[in-house]
Amino acid sequence: MKIPRKKDLLHLQQQYKTDKKIGEALGGVPEYLVSYWRRKKNIPLYSAPKFSQKEIEEAWLRHGSDFKAGRELNLSRAAFYSWRRKYGIYEKPAHLKLEQLELHFSPATVSGAVLAASRSSLPAPTTVKLWRRMAENSARGKLLPDWFLHDHPHAAGSLLFVLSPGKDQKVPSSPPEFVEPVLSRPSGNHSIWGDRSFGRSDWQLIEGRVLRPGETVAGEAVDMGGLGGIAVLCLPERLSPPMAVCKVEFARHAGPRAGVEDRFLEFVGRYPPPQWQNTVLEFLGVAVERLTVDRKIKLAQLATSFGAAAALCPFDDGIRRHFPRNVKSKFIKAFPDRGAVYDKEFLLEGRPKDVHLAKYTNGWKVLPGEEAMGHPVNTVIVGPDALPYEIAYAAEALGGRRIPRSVSLIVMPISAETVCDSRRRGWLENLISAGASIVDPRLAARIGLATLIGRDHGDVLLTRPPQDPAELTNPRRHLWFSGIRTAAATAVRGIITLP
After folding, report:
1. CA distance 499 to 489
2. Which of 93-97, 102-106, 409-413 has maximum average pLDDT?
3. Quick one: 328 and 276 in the same domain?
4. CATH code for the domain of 343
5. Which pLDDT band holds residue 337 (cuts at 50, 70, 90)?
6. Residue 138 and residue 21 share a domain
């Protein structure tokens, strides 16, 4: 057989890519022989560029900025510029397409189905993709979620909540059996029951792995915001037309002193809540992907407590590992399209150097940590609704040290299951030996936070904003909100201390 020329081999490689397929195209030539010919003619193995010229050019035309276009492709500013120079793309675009898109959706006039249709030609965020799926699966053009969550009508004091499948929807797979210590299964169409006195309803559903990433829930409960931490979209019960979708990107990981609360307070300080209240926030970026699941849940809970209609973190391997292997149901890929178009975009590019706190005076005001240092605090609350990682860090930070008698440290776990788990791991023993008081969530639900704190005039520092902060304040008392690291350091000294 005649050996192909170098020009012919290059043409075959461009067409068939691998030596095996090139040999088949030449009439059954062995793969090793094609490899030998290629090496003799100094032809390297075929390798396609990671990004095509079309992808680089389209990103450049959309943004006109190496930094913004690089963010879309998960590249640095310098890396995107190298790709642009490789393909000879130097000319600045005459206009930026994103600035020409005017996306104004009036909640009073636009329905969910119309929204899904109007944005079908644009790269969609996760929220719009889930709205679109609801519109496609719902009968008669109505938006019907996968689940409805509401209080049980016959429960005294509305302590029980019910999770039932949406009307005209296919009933999802049954919840796993191992959630029975927290939740029990009734008869009828209701899929699962829960007791609010056992803790926040969203955390009970997350603990039991009842809801799956990519599902949608409708309910009026104020304690459902954390579901966004596992990529579940929680909407108002009446399913009013969709609100604006905003992108919040944490471009860099937080420093060793800053926790997820400090990162969120930095966001609130830079972009005040009036800019994004009653909208859906989607948290993206490398820093969000590196967060553990419980920290993503805390981030979503904080967003809804400060006025966001809902909050979402994209589905990733961390969320997937939260669900055990015996959960066989498929997860919906709840993450945005590449280059998704948002109504607003907020960027936190730099790494935070300062710890932040929030002080309540007719509203939460974010302050740098240096401005609050040294302020006396009489009560430090790990909570209300403290997640396991907060209890674990508080126990580690206070290990071997006693709390002054002038300071009251109150730990309020988020659920009864968290209390049992913290006791088994020894966290509660360390906290009690340091002088902390542990409040069972069933007791806290009955007496309330105001009664638990009492009428003392000293200031109170919490690691989560309470639902009704005005009820806890008076002329001689101020409320502070900080991260768990700041709270642990403050409890030891009795004054606000940065970690």
Report:
1. 6
2. 409-413
3. yes
4. 3.30.499.10
5. confident
6. no
